[in-house]
Design brief:
The chain has helices at residues 14-27, 39-51, 114-129; strands at 3-9, 32-35, 73-76, 87-90, 104-110, 133-140, 143-146. The protein has 148 residues and is α/β, with parallel strands linked by helices. Strands 3-2-4-5-1-6-7 form a seven-stranded mixed sheet, sandwiched between helices. Helix 1 (14-27) crosses helix 2 (39-51). Helices cover 29% and strands 26% of the residues.
């Protein structure tokens, strides 16, 4: 069964939070696929990965960069996994039918969007009923706090 983590954004933007999660997954030894909502979001997150920490380099690429099989972190707006990733990060407003094919999936929810939060609750039930290992993380005063 997959390890599925829900990240409820309340204090920072996706551009600030997602690179931190991608870095932790990569540092844990995972290749990562980041699925963004559309091509513009891929470009925005690509820029965020370059600039989120001035003293850290997180190797990544997208179709504009090519060499997908050599990219430790791959940005896309599709359900492709050309780098053989075992970790998936779903950007805000995205879904995937392939979550259970990854060892780790991180689902980002925009806490200011009631529809996303409701969709996250529905996904929680589906994944729980399927027997996956679930956790829910919410942004608090001291960073991410595990709530469930």
């Amino acid at each position: 069964m997959a390890d599925i983590r829900f990240y409820h954004l309340q204090r920072t933007s996706e551009d600030a939070a997602l690179p931190q999660i991608a870095l932790k997954a990569w540092q844990a030894g995972h290749k990562v696929v980041i699925k963004a909502a559309n091509e513009e979001a891929v470009e925005r997150l690509n820029n965020a990965l370059w600039t989120f920490k001035p003293d850290v380099f997180l190797p990544h690429g997208s179709k504009d960069d090519g060499h997908a099989d050599r990219q430790p972190v791959w940005l896309t707006h599709g359900d492709d996994n050309p780098n053989g990733a075992k970790a998936l990060i779903l950007g805000t407003g995205t879904t995937s039918d392939k979550v259970e094919t990854y060892d780790l999936s991180c689902i980002m929810l925009d806490g200011n969007d009631a529809l996303q939060v409701d969709a996250g609750r529905a996904l929680w039930k589906v994944y729980k009923d399927a027997g996956h290992s679930l956790s829910y993380w919410q942004q608090g005063d001291k960073g991410w706090e595990k709530k469930a």
